[in-house]
Amino acid sequence: MQVRVVDYRAADAAEQFTRSLHETGFGVLVNHPIPQALVEKIYADWLAFFNGEDKHGFAFSKETQDGYFSTAISETAKGATQKDIKEYFHIYPWGRIPERLRADAMRYYEVANGLAAELLSWVERHTPPEIAKSYSEPLSNMIKDSTHTLLRVLRYPPLTGQEPAGSLRAAAHGDINLLTILPAANEPGLQVQDMSGNWVDVPCDFGMLIINIGDMLQEASQGYYPSTQHRVVNPTGEGATKSRVSLPLFLHPRNDVVLSERYTAHSYLEERLRELGVKT
Ligand SMILES: O=C(O)CCC(=O)C(=O)O
Ligand SMILES: [Fe+2]
Q: What global pTM score does this model have?
């Protein structure tokens, strides 16, 4: 399997990109409109935040799910036995965020949301008509004015050697949402699973933009766009002494969006958060 690297400005970009999503659940864009300088600034500022102490004043709320999730309460992937080796912060436009970090995060949120709407229209245009006819509304419309789209800043700390056997920076999982937009992290490690169960490195040169299908779009497209399992493996050697920072934007539909005969976006999310152990 090959995750394609597609030039966003190419004439056949939409076709190439959506083919990669259909075949692998992942697609990678270069020459995309997300400013790299903004991404790098966010990585640097948030690394300093995670290295400091005031993060503890932002402990996440079980009710609203915004704020800081420490390594001690970090999520356990569905079906996994160990916690992931990571800490993270959940940013929503209505949620808590350190004031000095707000403007850049919100600018990123806006720009990436705009691109996501365009990519969802590519996805819709390249869905076979017999499947597209059951989309309950245009896909790009599903995320419009959603209050659930989540910007997560992740920090995977340097490894200490004391990690529980078998634990990973991020254990194999599928994303819950419609579509995820992820700028390449500052360190490697992201892998996707192919149909035979092999783990394949996702192209991740600094500056690339990685997009993957989440479970909700798999549900809405009746599996045409698969939500593939992915993970972040632990580095060895020099890499083990470094933090890894990444910035996924999880595009979530409005609560009332009908995904399929079985689920609305709301019922789907509630079920998954309970399974993850971060909500009761
Ligand atoms: O850190 C990464 O590169 C991927 C993170 C991820 O897959 C997730 O948080 O769902
Ligand atoms: Fe993920």
A: 0.96
